[in-house]
Design goal:
The chain has 205 residues and is of the alpha+beta class. It has a domain of 141 residues. It has three helices and seven strands, in the order ββββαββαβα. The strands form two sheets. Strands 2-1-4-3 form a four-stranded antiparallel sheet, with no helix packed on it. It has a three-stranded antiparallel sheet with strand order 6-5-7, covered by helices on one side. A hairpin with a 3-residue loop joins β3 and β4. α1 crosses α3. It is extended, with a radius of gyration of 38 Å. It starts with 5 loop residues before the first strand and ends in a 59-residue tail after the last helix.
Length: 205
C-alpha cells in the first residue's frame, strides 16, 4: 500500500511505424504506452528496449517520480472528479547518439490537472494514461486530507450597494416631500396667496 507523498515510476514509450500516405513525411510515431511503478523493475536505471520488431518497439524510460504537494490539492481533486483519473506525461523529441531520427524522451509525470494545463498552455506535448486503482486510492487519501474547497462569498444585493455619481463620489437621494414656496414651480396657479375666487351672486327673479 502506498503510504507516502512520493511515487517512483517508469514511463513506457511506444514507437510505431507510420502507415499510409503520412509515411512519406514521417516514418515513425511515438506515443506514451503506460506508466509503471518503479518497483516492478528496480534494477533498470537507463533507457531500455523491452520489445522490438519491424513495425513497433517498446522502451522503458526510468527515473521519474510523482510527488504530491498540499498546495496542488485542487489539481488532484479535479483529476479525481473525472470518470477515469489519469497520469499526464510530458515528453519531447530528442536526438540520441547513434539514432537515425529523434526519439521521444519523457520529462515529467504528474497527477495534477493544473500542472498538465500549464504544460498544454505552453504548447508542450502531453499525453494521458489511466491511473491504476491503487494509485487512485492513494491520491484520494491525500486529497481528502488536504483539499479545502474555496468558500464562495455571497454576492451583495444591488440594493445595498452605495450610490455614486458619475465621478465615483458618494451620492445621496432625498426622500423628503416637495415644499411649495413662493416663486417655486410648485406654487398654485393664479397667485394671490392661493385664495379661491368668490362665487358670483345668485340672479334675482
Amino acid at each position: 500500500m502506498l503510504d507516502s507523498n512520493h511515487l517512483p515510476v517508469h514511463v513506457v514509450m511506444r514507437c510505431e511505424r507510420v502507415q499510409g500516405p503520412m509515411s512519406r513525411w514521417q516514418t515513425w510515431r511515438w506515443k506514451v504506452a503506460d506508466v509503471w511503478p518503479a518497483e516492478l523493475h528496480p534494477h533498470i536505471t537507463a533507457r531500455h528496449c523491452l520489445l522490438q520488431d519491424e513495425d513497433h518497439s517498446l522502451w522503458l524510460c526510468p527515473g521519474f517520480s510523482v510527488d504530491l504537494h498540499r498546495d496542488d490539492a485542487e489539481g488532484y481533486h479535479l483529476n479525481l472528479s473525472a470518470d477515469q483519473p489519469v497520469f499526464w506525461v510530458m515528453w519531447r523529441d530528442e536526438a540520441l547518439p547513434g539514432a537515425d531520427e529523434p526519439v521521444a524522451q519523457p520529462l515529467l509525470v504528474t497527477l495534477s490537472y493544473h500542472v498538465a494545463g500549464r504544460l498544454l498552455d505552453a504548447q508542450e506535448t502531453v499525453e494521458t494514461v489511466p491511473a491504476p486503482a491503487e494509485v487512485v486510492a492513494w491520491l484520494q487519501a491525500f486529497t481528502q486530507s488536504h483539499y479545502q474547497p474555496e468558500v464562495k462569498r455571497r454576492k451583495r444585493p444591488e440594493s445595498f450597494r452605495p450610490l455614486t455619481d458619475r465621478f465615483g463620489n458618494p451620492a445621496s437621494v432625498s426622500t423628503g416631500k416637495v415644499k411649495w414656496g413662493d416663486g417655486g414651480e410648485g406654487q398654485q396657479a393664479g397667485g394671490g396667496g392661493g385664495r379661491q375666487a368668490a362665487s358670483p351672486p345668485a340672479e334675482q327673479p
